[in-house]
Amino acid sequence: MLGNARALRILCPLVGAVLLSAVSPSNAQTADIPSFVTGNELAQWFTNRPNIANAYVLGVWDQHSSFQVGLGQKTICMPTQVSRKQAAEVVKRYVNEHPEQRHYAAAAMVTVALTAAFPCPK
Question: What's the pTM value of the predicted model, to 2 decimals?
Answer without folding.
Answer: 0.70
